[in-house]
Write a structure and sequence with these properties.
This protein has about 250 residues and is an alpha/beta fold. Helix content is about 40%, strand content about 10%. Helix 10 (about 235-240) links the parallel strand 3 and strand 4. Helix 8 runs parallel beside helix 9.
Length: about 250
Amino acid sequence: MTISQNPSFDTFQGLFNEAEFVYRHLGSNETKQADLLSAVGYKDMQSFINDTVPEPVRLHKELDLPVAMSEHAALAKLRTMADDITVNKSYIGQGYSPVRMPAVIQRNVLENPGWYTAYTPYQAEIAQGRLEALLNFQQVCIDLTGLELAGASLLDEATAAAEAMAMSKRVSKSKSTQYFVDERVYPQTLDVINTRAKYFGWDVVVGDFETAKSGDYFGALFQYVGVEGDVKDLTDVIAAVKKTRLTSVSSVIS
C-alpha cells in the first residue's frame, strides 16, 4: 500500500485534505516503506508479501470497498446511523440489568480523555487509564464487600469465572480434578466453565452451595447475587472450605 502525503491545496477542496485521516493512522509513505523494506532485504512490497503470507490465505483480487470518506464525513455518517438505533428495555434477566450512571462518573471517567489516551509516547493508548479505573473499581468492591481481595478485568463474567477456575487449579495443593460450581450461576457462565474444564480434563460438579463444604474439590465458584436474584450468606460455607486445601472463588455481581 502506498499513500501520498502531498495533498494539493491549489483549490478550496484541497483544504479538506481527504487523505489526512489515512496516513495519520497508517503512518507510512512511499519513502518510509522503501526504507523499511530495504532494512529487511526486499526491493518492493509484493516480494515481501510473497515470502511472508501463505498462498492459501491470500485474496487475489481487490477488496470491494466503497470510496473512502474523510474523517469528518465518516463521523457524520456514524452519528446518523446511531440516531436510527432504537433503545428498548431489556427483560432478559440472567445477570443483565440496567444501571444508573452517575453524572460524575460519566463526565470524569468515561468522558475524560485522561483515562483513555496515552500520557507517554510508549504507552498503549488505553492501558494506563484502564489500569487505574480497574484498580479503583477493585478498591470499591473491597470496601463494599469487606473482602480482603478483589480482582477486576475487561473480561466478560463467564470468561473471568473460567480463568478463576484455572487459577484455582494452579494455586491449590489439592490433587483433585473436580471443581465445584454453585447451581445458582448464570447459564452462560456455566457453559464457558464446562468448555474450559473439558479440555483440561477436569470435572465440573454443580450443586447447592452448601454441599461445597463436604466435597473433594480443588476449587469452588459461588454466585452472588444468584440467578433468581437471591442473596445467600456465604460466610459459613467460605469459612468451612478455607479449613480444607480448597481454593474458594466468589463471583460477585454488582
